[in-house]
Design goal:
By secondary structure, this protein is α+β, with helices and mostly antiparallel strands. The protein is built from eleven helices and six strands. It folds into two domains: 154 residues, no CATH class; 150 residues. A hairpin with a 2-residue loop joins strand 3 and strand 4. The longest helix has 29 residues. The two termini are 38 Å apart.
Length: 309
């Protein structure tokens, strides 16, 4: 079976959610397969609370875990020795694989209870098993509907940023392998749960833009005069000026003014964040918010510059 290529984890999760929901609505949703698909989506989107109940359904509920109401069934226990009948509420903790197997074989599940008058037995009928599996499917469908609504509508900004990142990475890879290595480092540090790694994002952003500047406008000893008569130093360390010079050469006047303003703002923002990251030996990390903002600005600027390459 040929694997599909997705431009982002969110696209993969949305595709799985749509396909799984369609199978359920068409009456082809097997509880085990549906739960497995939900487990993949919960992992991709880091839905920890949902992962817990999905894992419980797949592996069975353990002592101390909250049992959902649809798994609490009143059964009739009968004592063989005294012919005594007792109704008890049973918590069905078995995993969904066992329930599905019993459903497929059309075999009720048997339970035994030891009491003062001996051993009592009861059967979990196929109708009860059918009802539990149907409730599991309903719960999965509710999860899928929420995921689809979140990804299609609530997460539009995140989705657009992932689209920009993916397309920008592809173009940057054609310019310089070193840029690709740095973008991988950037994303790894962003995904880290260690705050010390977030400070490295600022350095990666600066390096990505410098490598991009080296490719589109290599360092020069002489100054560069823009169309509006500004003089820019364009040496090796002046990579922001070199990006501005490149846009001065390539972009139309109205486009250039906006992009240069964005780059200059970013340079000020980046410089402050990197300085903050280096401020103290025992406090080397910046906040995740600032790390995310730095990466967003980097990709927005790079994507705009690459339009003129």
């Amino acid at each position: 079976m040929k694997s599909k290529h997705f431009s982002s984890p969110r696209e993969e999760a949305l595709t799985i959610a749509m396909e799984t929901r369609s199978r359920i609505l068409e009456g082809e949703g097997d509880a085990v397969d549906v739960l497995r698909a939900c487990s993949v989506m919960a992992h991709i989107l880091n839905k920890e609370d949902d992962r817990k109940w999905i894992t419980c359904e797949l592996e069975g509920y353990k002592l101390g875990e909250k049992i959902p109401s649809y798994r609490k069934i009143t059964l009739r226990f009968r004592n063989a020795g005294s012919l005594q009948i007792e109704y008890r509420k049973l918590e069905v903790v078995e995993d969904v694989h066992l329930l599905s197997s019993a459903q497929e074989k059309d075999e009720p599940l048997q339970y035994r209870r030891e009491g003062f008058v001996g051993v009592s037995t009861a059967s979990l009928d196929i109708s009860d098993i059918d009802n539990i599996l149907a409730k599991i499917i309903d719960r999965c469908l509710d999860f899928l509907n929420k995921i689809i609504a979140e990804l299609q509508y609530g997460g539009m900004v995140e989705y657009l940023m992932e689209e920009i990142r993916q397309k920008t990475d592809e173009k940057l890879a054609t310019l310089d392998n070193k840029i690709t290595e740095e973008t991988r480092s950037l994303l790894a540090n962003l995904a880290s749960t260690n705050p010390a790694d977030w400070s490295k994002v600022g350095h990666s952003c600066r390096k990505i833009l410098k490598l991009l500047a080296d490719r589109v406008f290599p360092p020069r000893d002489q100054v560069y005069e823009t169309r509006d008569k500004r003089v820019l130093q364009v040496g090796d360390s002046n990579f922001i000026n070199r990006l501005c010079a490149f846009l001065d050469l390539k972009a139309k006047s109205d486009e250039k003014k906006f992009l240069v303003a964005e780059i200059e703002y970013f340079e000020s923002y980046l410089r402050q964040a990197v300085n903050y990251a280096q401020m103290a030996e025992h406090n080397p990390a910046i906040e995740r918010f600032h790390a995310n903002m730095l990466s967003i600005h980097t990709y927005l600027i790079a994507s705009e510059i690459l339009k003129y390459v």
